[in-house]
Structure to design on (556 residues):
């Protein structure tokens, strides 16, 4: 008799709703647009709700429940956009448990989100923005100097150099985008292990050294560029740079300007350009 | 030269780059070197300009990339639109070169047009930041709308949210209105970027056409070289801040890179000779 009761209980229990792999793929794809409605007040909050929508629609078929779930995720949220998939995957896991009746409070989901988002931002910003992005641009610039300009026909460097820049950056960034939501979903309960597995600090140090190395190589190329016998710009030899003095003037303005006003690169560059025009007028 | 197809291509490119930067794609499409080179590939001044039509954008892109690479975190940066700066710079340089070559001494070569492109790109970054302010302001309104729907626990707020989730038409997925709000914001980013690439290029071109002929006599090769070198120096200094200054043992790695490159270049020259 008791066995029969147990069978009846199992039959009466609602079927568990599971997040499907395709939902996570769609969430990951939507995470590409996570910053569209970026504001200082909510940061990526609206984008987070937008990206998680496929998962929420799967878990909450009743519109009242769906409405509440969306509202929970519209709150302030900020992390690195490329690593947002990890938080989205973890949030999908926690929402799945909540939708299936496990004792997961709404506030707990928000707390977990923030707890994962903050270290991801702290790791992602220095790696992607401060290290990898400048390095990728530098790769494109160095390629301009290394790939010889054709004497006849179109100069394919116009496509090769940006392609190298894109490949350098996305060779590192794309894997995080692709696997982020799935890894986040699987490792939702082990955030420390998840963060360690990214190895961004080690990669960041190596790429930082590569950036400095590449910058040194660029300087060497410029020194070669200042060999006026091989310079390509202009047809008239007298029109070429004759001394290194203006280069030093520009370097001092740029170096001192950015030391004094970091983050104002455009203004400092315009100041250097204006100084060049002013001093050039005195010649 | 028909300007309309060129400007349509430039506008579409600018829109895509603006989405890459503002919507969070962050694929590096919006970097100046990529934008400038792609614009150079799209703007076609004609076969007689084949040599400079592709080299000038490369020069504009390389210098703008060094100048606009800001190693500080995005929150610490000023709101400049570096995504379309390369596009506007390259377009102004190429279209200006075609229109003004008869009034500017040809002996100056491509250096002048690289400088014109860099100047146009820098000014475009500043003005483009103001234009993108429109998107930021509208985003705040959109988020305010979402907050209005989601922020209140009152029955009224709940009803408004449920109404929005119901969708406008029967049969539409729930949450359609929220998604529509989001996709429209994405479209707005594209349109703002496209508009600024188009308008900025035209404004820059008009400015170049108005100013450069007046400087005809002033624009000697020596002066152009001086300004070019000053700009290059500032670009290298910006590169130093981005790649070396904040790195642990950055100076040593830089010296190693320079030494290795000089040795390799010397070896290559010896092999060639």
């Amino acid at each position: 008799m008791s066995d029969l009761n147990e069978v009846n209980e199992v039959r009466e229990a609602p079927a568990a709703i599971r997040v499907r792999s395709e939902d996570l793929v769609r969430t990951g794809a939507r995470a590409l647009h996570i910053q569209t409605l970026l504001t200082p007040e909510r940061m990526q909050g609206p984008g987070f709700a937008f990206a998680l929508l496929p998962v929420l629609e799967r878990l909450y078929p009743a519109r009242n429940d769906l409405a509440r779930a969306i509202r929970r995720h519209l709150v302030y949220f900020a992390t690195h956009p490329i690593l947002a998939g990890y938080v989205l995957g973890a949030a999908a896991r926690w929402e799945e448990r909540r939708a299936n009746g496990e004792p997961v409070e709404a506030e707990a989901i928000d707390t977990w989100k923030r707890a994962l988002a903050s270290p991801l931002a702290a790791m992602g910003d220095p790696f992607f923005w401060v290290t990898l992005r400048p390095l990728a641009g530098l790769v494109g610039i160095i390629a301009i100097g290394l790939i010889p300009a054709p004497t006849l026909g179109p100069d394919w460097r116009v496509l090769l150099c940006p392609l190298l820049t894109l490949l350098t950056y996305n060779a590192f960034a794309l894997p995080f985008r692709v696997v982020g939501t799935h890894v986040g979903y699987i490792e939702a309960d082990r955030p420390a292990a998840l963060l360690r597995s990214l190895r961004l600090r080690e990669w960041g140090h190596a790429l930082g050294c590569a950036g400095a190395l590449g910058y040194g190589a660029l300087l060497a190329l410029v020194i070669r560029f200042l060999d006026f016998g091989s310079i390509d710009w202009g047809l008239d030899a007298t029109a070429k740079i004759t001394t290194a003095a203006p280069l030093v003037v520009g370097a001092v303005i740029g170096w001192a300007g950015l030391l004094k006003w970091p983050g104002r690169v455009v203004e400092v560059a315009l100041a250097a350009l204006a100084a060049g025009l002013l001093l050039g007028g005195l010649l | 030269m028909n300007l309309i197809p060129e400007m349509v291509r430039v506008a579409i490119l600018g829109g895509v780059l603006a989405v890459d930067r503002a919507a969070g794609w962050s694929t590096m499409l919006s970097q100046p070197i990529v934008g400038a080179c792609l614009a150079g590939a799209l703007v076609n001044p004609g076969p007689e300009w084949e040599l400079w039509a592709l080299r000038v954008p490369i020069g504009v892109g390389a210098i703008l990339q060094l100048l606009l690479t800001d190693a500080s975190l995005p929150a610490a940066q000023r709101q400049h639109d570096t995504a379309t700066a390369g596009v506007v710079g390259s377009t102004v340089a190429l279209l200006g070169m075609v229109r003004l070559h008869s009034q500017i001494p040809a002996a100056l070569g491509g250096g002048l047009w690289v400088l014109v492109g860099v100047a146009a790109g820098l000014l475009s970054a500043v003005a483009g930041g103001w234009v993108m302010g429109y998107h930021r302001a509208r985003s705040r309104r959109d988020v305010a709308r979402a907050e209005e729907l989601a922020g209140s626990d009152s029955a009224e707020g709940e009803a408004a949210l449920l109404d929005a989730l119901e969708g406008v038409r029967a049969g539409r997925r729930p949450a359609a209105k929220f998604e529509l709000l989001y996709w429209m914001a994405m479209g707005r980013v594209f349109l703002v970027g496209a508009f600024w690439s188009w308008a900025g290029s035209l404004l820059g071109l008009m400015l170049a056409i108005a100013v450069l002929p007046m400087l005809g006599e002033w624009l000697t090769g020596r002066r152009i070289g001086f300004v070019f070198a000053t700009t290059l120096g500032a670009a290298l200094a910006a590169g130093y801040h981005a790649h070396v200054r904040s790195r642990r043992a950055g100076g040593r790695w830089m010296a190693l890179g320079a030494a290795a490159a000089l040795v390799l270049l010397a070896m290559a020259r010896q092999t060639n000779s």
Summary: Chain B is about 75% helix and 0% strand. Chain B touches chain A through 121 residues (CB under 8 Å). Residues 167-171 of chain B have pLDDT under 50 and may be disordered.
